[in-house]
Design brief:
heterodimer; A: 115 residues; mainly beta; seven-stranded mixed beta sheet; 55% strand; B: mainly beta; 53% strand
Chain lengths: 115, 115
């Protein structure tokens, strides 16, 4: 009955590798997000998609590329991983079209460690 | 630009004490929403409450209560008769009309409830 799920939960990899994190929601929501939580627990939005359309694209390196095959899935692909990419990445979803009133429901997070 | 400040980085209390977590926000928008999320040691982000800028009524849910005061731009969270299971990082967040569904998070408050 998991509402927003992410895989994997932990990801340990070497610098320079390419990796993907998958996210799926079964809430029937129209909008999905990626957030990054750094080592100081600070949360910042990275991307948002509504029904496969990119609606928020914050200033993140272009090594990060989101892909939404359908409105229930939003994956995050990261190329040429760097030490500074180590963080917890959260996927979230909300019902509306990215409205100010939308409540976002978060997945369990993926802890990425780059060695 | 919008901003959320949670000045209390860490709070430690003894079980059964009441504790208030402070949240101060900044925005020039007249329409905005405020949120509280809980991040327990297991790491997931759990939605607690959403409040819009036009509703200043206080809200109570069991041992949790929220006090929204537009005059001081504050949205404080009180836990009554705290329990060990309340130990977590608590985040206050803001979404504004001009920024759509982007959530701006505070830095979080680490609450530790000791037996």
């Amino acid at each position: 009955d998991t509402a927003v799920s992410q895989t994997p939960k932990y990801l340990v990899t070497q610098m320079g590798n390419d990796k993907s994190i998958k996210c799926e929601q079964n809430l029937g929501h129209d909008t999905m997000y990626w957030y990054k939580q750094d080592s100081k627990k600070f949360l910042k939005i990275m991307f948002s998609y509504n029904n496969k359309e990119l609606i928020i694209n914050e200033t993140v390196p272009n090594r990060f590329s989101p892909k939404s095959p359908d409105k229930a899935h939003l994956n995050l692909h990261i190329n040429s991983l760097e030490l500074g990419d180590s963080a917890v990445y959260f996927c979230a979803s909300s019902q509306g079209y990215g409205f100010v009133s939308d409540t976002q429901y978060f997945g369990p997070g993926t802890r990425l460690t780059v060695l | 630009a919008q901003k959320v400040t949670q000045a209390q980085t860490e709070i430690s209390v003894v079980e059964k004490e009441d504790v208030t977590l402070d949240c101060v926000y900044e925005t020039r928008d007249t329409t905005y929403y405020l949120f509280w999320y809980k991040q327990p040691p297991s790491g997931e982000l759990v939605f607690l409450i959403r409040r819009n800028s036009f509703d200043e009524q206080n809200e109570i849910s069991g041992r949790y209560s929220w006090n929204f005061q537009k005059s001081t731009s504050s949205f404080n969270f009180t836990i009554t008769a705290s329990q060990v299971v309340d130990s977590a990082v608590y985040f206050c967040a803001l979404s504004c009309e001009t920024s759509g569904s982007r959530l701006t998070f505070g830095e979080g408050t680490q609450l530790t409830v000791n037996p």
